[in-house]
Write a structure and sequence with these properties.
- The structure is a homotetramer.
- The first copy, chain A, is mainly alpha-helical.
- The first copy, chain A, folds into two domains: about 50 residues, Homeodomain-like (Arc Repressor Mutant, subunit A, Orthogonal Bundle), CATH 1.10.10.60; about 140 residues, Tetracycline Repressor, domain 2 (Orthogonal Bundle), CATH 1.10.357.10.
- Chain A is about 80% helix and about 0% strand.
- In chain A, helix 1 crosses helix 6, helix 4 packs antiparallel against helix 5 and helix 8 runs antiparallel to helix 9.
- Chains in contact: A-B, C-D.
- At the A-B interface, helix 1, helix 6, helix 7, helix 8 and helix 9 of A face helix 1, helix 6, helix 7, helix 8 and helix 9 of B.
- The structure holds a DNA duplex.
Chain lengths: ~200, ~200, ~200, ~200
Amino acid sequence: MNKHKIKKEISFQKFMEASLKVFAEKGYEKASLDDIAREAGYTKGAFYIHFSSKEELFLKLMKSRLEVFKQQFLESFTPGENIEDTVRAGVALFVHLTKKDNWAPLYFEFCVNAIRNDSIKKHMADHYQDWIETIIFILKQSKECKSCKDDVLKQLAATIIALLDGYHLQESISPNSMSQDTISKSIVNVIHSIC
Amino acid sequence: MNKHKIKKEISFQKFMEASLKVFAEKGYEKASLDDIAREAGYTKGAFYIHFSSKEELFLKLMKSRLEVFKQQFLESFTPGENIEDTVRAGVALFVHLTKKDNWAPLYFEFCVNAIRNDSIKKHMADHYQDWIETIIFILKQSKECKSCKDDVLKQLAATIIALLDGYHLQESISPNSMSQDTISKSIVNVIHSIC
Amino acid sequence: MNKHKIKKEISFQKFMEASLKVFAEKGYEKASLDDIAREAGYTKGAFYIHFSSKEELFLKLMKSRLEVFKQQFLESFTPGENIEDTVRAGVALFVHLTKKDNWAPLYFEFCVNAIRNDSIKKHMADHYQDWIETIIFILKQSKECKSCKDDVLKQLAATIIALLDGYHLQESISPNSMSQDTISKSIVNVIHSIC
Amino acid sequence: MNKHKIKKEISFQKFMEASLKVFAEKGYEKASLDDIAREAGYTKGAFYIHFSSKEELFLKLMKSRLEVFKQQFLESFTPGENIEDTVRAGVALFVHLTKKDNWAPLYFEFCVNAIRNDSIKKHMADHYQDWIETIIFILKQSKECKSCKDDVLKQLAATIIALLDGYHLQESISPNSMSQDTISKSIVNVIHSIC
DNA sequence: AATGAATGAGCGTTCATTCAT
DNA sequence: AATGAATGAACGCTCATTCAT
């Protein structure tokens, strides 16, 4: 039992959780290391034991949260009997996860920074690719898409993501413009029309 | 003809144009008033003749650019003979405007700040409302949607916006995942399925 | 009459004088910009109106003080009737200037930083070259050195500088080990022996 | 034989050697204990087992290196048959030692700190006194200085040190301005002229 | 004897804002 | 209307020192 390592892991996690909160509340630039350290229950100096810079923390947090989001989705997702039920379950789960942990401000903070910073952009692009593949995998298990070509499915998956992202954004700024039902129906329709 | 006022209007516009560029390049926080003033061809002190704070500038710029975007859309938009052509024209125009003037980083900068700041959020919400109405107005001119109920059209318009926003975001981070054609077809299908 | 420029020049000079004092007292690294600004009667922020970095200030101060030292020497130096009087006058003047304005700690601070920093080193090397030429010029006016070869005079001048630097250093650490008289005599002797 | 003590002595020496290197490269202030510990092959915490502070290390290093320099000089120095050979041998040895172990930046770092810090100054003054006595001892073995008065020899020794220090400084900043031969000749001449 | 997590004070630098000119 | 010197509060980062392990 290595107490040092355990302690380090605990503080690392506290910093990650604290930064999740502070970045979500204030955005990357306005979140100060003082804020984050205070929230984590440490001093600013301690921060540099665990991270080499603010940017590194942001990147690590981003990787971690995007991964956690995907894991939580995959763990809880259960496809329905038909494509409609499957989509409905997926959308419901997406909406649910989206409301947890201050996800919206953090996610769009990632996006905005990705647009201007190439190394973040690369990461977000990978993340999109991941989701495209995940969605294709799910779609392929339905009778509707079983025999669709891969490039068609790719476009379809990207469209579904666009719808969800756009819904998420709209919901964050002007809640209740769209119902979950509308989103689900639209997705199902797009699937039927393309496949 | 008041020379003072004309001069003032000119420098105001120069600051607006300069800040459009600098905010798009660096984001709100990292854009310094020095950068903006230099870009505008003035000094920092001059800034405060036209704006009372950096935040005010950002808000004014946001209002102005969102308005300009809409005006440019409305001016150039010509509905086609049928809904499909109309949608295709609208999407093409949206994509075109979206690529001008470094629009993506600025637009999503607005969105991200809206999520965290209530007065900005209010503004963006109004902007969404505006677009919803504009889209409803366009849809109503087609035979497909002529007799649709208003609340159905609202959901439809919001869905179209979500698709476009989501496409815009994806395109900014990971270009060429989706074709314009896909987006148009999806919109047409959603229209058909809902109306 | 440009008040802005005058004001700027005054503050610039105050910063230069303040840094002269603070660098001499604390050395380059331990002298903080807060110290220097306080000593100058300004705040830290004002510093960056006049200098782009701490290092730039140090370099400017170094150039300025080395130049001032040389100017003061040249202005006050009057050769004697013979080489002995000339040397005696020169040494007395050197010793006098050396005791003004906290010169020793500043000068050796320059030297130490020169050893480790190439751009400073280049500057100090130029300064040495300057002094060698100045001393050669003075020596050439004496009948003893009138017809000496240039490379011999160069070695002679460098030796004289070594003696003065070495004396200056020793005097700064362990005062009164050597008399001015000794130094003068030694220089005269070296001149006689080489020329 | 105490294993603990031997181990302690070894790590002490490693820290001394490491700090010799790091102080020479970066100077006192910019040398961090992290740098030194890493160079020594330990961690920062271990440092405080052997030294109570950074300043103490610097002082111990200074004492040790000044002593080592003198020991190395005395061990290798062999007087010649006449004063000229003796001086030539001494100068050659001085120049040789001076080029070893990054001596210049360290030595002048000592000097600069001595000028500003009284306890270091005291130490350097003792060091100078030591060298004066050493040089007097050497000079007294020559027929030229055998019967010189002590205070005359003291001035002479101080002058020789000044020349060597000045040469060392000049050589460190602007190499090859003076030849070793010139320095030797000058010293011999000063000896002849004073004694 | 040695590690390494944590502190806390300090530093160089940036920048929105003010105001005399 | 415009300049630009000055402020003052932050901020990211460093580092000598402490202490539980």
